[in-house]
UniProtKB/TrEMBL annotation:
It catalyses: Fe-coproporphyrin III + 2 H(+) = coproporphyrin III + Fe(2+). This is Coproporphyrin III ferrochelatase. Gene3D superfamilies: 3.40.50.1400. Involved in coproporphyrin-dependent heme b biosynthesis. Catalyzes the insertion of ferrous iron into coproporphyrin III to form Fe-coproporphyrin III. Its EC number is 4.99.1.9. The lineage of its organism: Bacteria, Bacillati, Actinomycetota, Actinomycetes, Micrococcales. The keyword Metal-binding applies. Belongs to the ferrochelatase family. It comes from the Bacteria. It comes from Frondihabitans peucedani. Signal peptide: none annotated. Pathway: Porphyrin-containing compound metabolism; protoheme biosynthesis.
Length: 400
């Protein structure tokens, strides 16, 4: 690739990020924000082609695609994710205008229209050469970070614009207060609701808070985050979720003014597994975790979609349908807390992340609510490898 020359170690990076610092401390005059989404079908005819896009190269049989297609067809073949991204784009534009920041927002998807290559062409047509990307995923793993970075690189190559457009990416924002605060508010409100609706509820023994995120192959989890950080076999992916969950529970408990002897039980659980039974994925599955509570003191279950930024299909089907049905089967009172969506605190936080890079804010001055952050502006070598596919060219990270 032509961009890794003359001392530049990061593909298609702006000069401030080209040599791969952990945190960029030089200001960069970006032309536009690239909002990068997963994408989703917007009609019945789109469902199978969309699922083929998502699973390309993985050898998923058609019958498995048909099983997943049922989830989308239950909702008319329309995933809410594109509409959520339209709303997020509009909210970002409104917040930028409110703060008098002249940065247009371009939106592109990995797996459905508008596709990333089309948006890169649009940027070129409008004369934008320095883009700062926000991926709609907060944590570190192959599918939630590196794959976005690979898709940016592929879009530049496909369009022939790798020599004229530079793409940086904001840091993974799992522990940015703008992302975390909506979950704190949601857990606080859910526990208050449980207390109102269940007489004499003991928050210290009779409630279980389940923090749910997308399961991923154990091999991918082990490779998430830089090896030098010394994470366990579940890697940075699980460590980040657990760290955020601890912060959420501590803040929600403080907001409820619980005494020091009351600790609300919680656990990290996983959902939406799609791999073959022979391949280990992160566990426990949320439904298994719910059923395991049967016969114990639990009366109420609070489901927190900690791994998700909006109410897309896997929240609506796997949590609002399957997990809540599991709670009903076991006789538990249950509720699901909101995702950040377009919460003003979240939207403001995303703009703040862009300004970190625009202004070259030092790492010491960057807000983060766990000891793991602030995460890196430029991903470290070997970060978030896909063991099955190997390393492909990617922007916003040191090779491989």
């Amino acid at each position: 690739m032509s961009n890794i020359t003359n001392g530049q170690l990061v593909k298609a990076a702006t000069p401030a990020a080209a040599e791969g610092p952990e945190w960029v401390s030089e200001p960069t005059a970006y032309d536009a924000i690239l909002l990068a989404g997963f994408g989703g079908p917007e009609g019945q005819d789109d469902v199978i082609p969309f699922l083929r896009n998502v699973t390309r190269g993985r050898g998923i049989p058609e019958e498995r695609l048909e099983e997943v297609a049922h989830h989308y067809r239950h909702f008319g073949g329309i995933s809410p994710i594109n509409e959520h991204n339209r709303e997020l784009k509009a909210a970002l534009e409104q917040e930028l205008a409110r703060r008098e920041i002249d940065l247009p927002v371009l939106w592109g998807n990995r797996n459905w229209d508008p596709y990333l290559p089309d948006v890169v062409r649009e940027a070129s047509d409008r004369g934008y050469t320095k883009l700062i990307a926000i991926a709609t995923s907060a944590y570190s793993s192959y599918s939630s970070c590196r794959q976005y970075r690979e898709d940016f690189a592929m879009a530049l190559d496909e369009t022939g614009l790798a020599d004229s457009i530079q793409i940086d990416k904001v840091r993974q924002f799992f522990d940015h207060p703008g992302f975390v605060q909506p979950f704190i508010d949601g857990v606080r409100d859910a526990l208050l609701k449980a207390q109102r609706e269940i007489d004499g509820l003991d928050l210290g023994t009779e409630v279980q808070v389940l923090f749910s995120t997308h399961s991923i192959p154990s091999s991918d989890a082990a490779k998430s985050g830089p090896a030098a950080r010394g994470f366990d076999d579940e890697g940075a992916y699980a460590a980040q979720h657990r760290a955020v969950a601890e912060v959420v529970m501590a803040a929600a408990s403080a907001a409820l003014e619980l005494d020091s002897t009351t600790t609300v039980p919680w656990q990290l659980v996983f959902q939406s597994r799609s791999g073959p039974p022979s391949m280990p994925w992160l566990e426990p599955d949320i439904n298994d975790a719910i059923h395991a509570l049967k016969g114990g003191p639990t009366k109420a279950v609070v489901i927190v979609p900690l791994g998700f930024v909006s109410d897309h299909m896997e929240v609506m089907w796997d949590l609002d349908n399957e997990a809540l049905e599991s709670c009903e089967e076991e006789g538990f009172w249950a509720t699901r807390t909101p995702t950040p969506g377009i919460d003003p605190v979240y939207v403001t936080g995303l703009v703040d992340l862009v300004l970190e890079r625009r202004d070259g804010v030092p790492a010491a001055d960057r807000p983060h609510v766990t000891d793991l952050g602030p995460w890196y502006d430029v991903c470290r070598p070997g970060c978030c490898e896909n063991v099955r596919l190997g390393f492909k060219p990617a922007v916003s990270g040191l090779v491989p």
